[in-house]
C-alpha cells in the first residue's frame, strides 16, 4: 500500500511517499519509478505501487530526515 506522510526538515515541509510492502512506486502521469519519493506539498504528485520489489535496501531509506538530507545535498535518494 502507498503511504504518504508529512515530514519537516529545516523548517520545510515535505511529503514522503513509499510502499509499506517495499515495492517500487510509479509517479502518475510521468511513469517515473522510484524506491521512495520526497516532494514539496504544492507539487501535488500522486503515486501508485508497482509489483517490482525494492531489492537493494539502503539502511537509511526509511528515515525521512536522511532522505531529505540526501536530496538537499544533491545525492539523490
Describe the structure.
The structure is a single chain. This protein has 77 residues and is mainly beta. The chain has one domain. Helix content is 12%, strand content 44%. The strands form 2 sheets. A 3-stranded antiparallel beta sheet has the order 1-2-5, covered by helices on one side. A 3-stranded antiparallel beta sheet has the order 4-3-6, with no helix packed on it. The radius of gyration is 12 Å and the shape is globular.
Number of helices: 1
The radius of gyration is 12 Å
Strand arrangement, major sheet: 1-2-5
Number of DSSP-assigned strands: 6
Give the overall pLDDT as a whole number.
85
Number of domains: 1
Secondary structural class: mainly beta
Largest sheet: 3 strands, antiparallel
The residue ranges in which pLDDT falls below 50 over 5 or more consecutive positions are none
H-E string: EEEEEEH
- Write down the overall geometry: globular
Strand content: 35-45%
Distance between the termini: 20 Å
| Range of helix content | 10-25%
Outline the secondary-structure elements:
Elements: E1 2-9, E2 12-19, E3 23-27, E4 33-34, E5 36-39, E6 47-53, H1 64-72
Antiparallel strand pairs: 1-2, 2-5, 3-4, 3-6
Summarize the structure.
This protein is mainly beta and 77 residues long. The protein is 12% helix and 44% strand. The chain has one domain (2-72).
Amino acid at each position: 500500500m502507498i503511504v504518504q506522510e508529512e515530514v519537516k526538515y529545516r523548517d520545510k515541509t515535505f511529503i514522503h511517499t513509499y510502499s509499506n510492502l517495499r515495492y517500487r512506486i510509479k509517479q502518475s502521469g510521468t511513469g517515473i519509478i522510484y524506491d521512495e519519493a520526497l516532494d514539496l506539498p504544492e507539487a501535488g504528485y500522486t503515486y501508485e505501487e508497482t509489483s517490482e520489489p525494492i531489492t537493494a535496501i539502503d539502511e537509511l531509506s526509511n528515515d525521512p530526515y536522511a532522505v531529505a538530507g540526501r536530496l538537499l545535498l544533491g545525492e539523490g535518494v
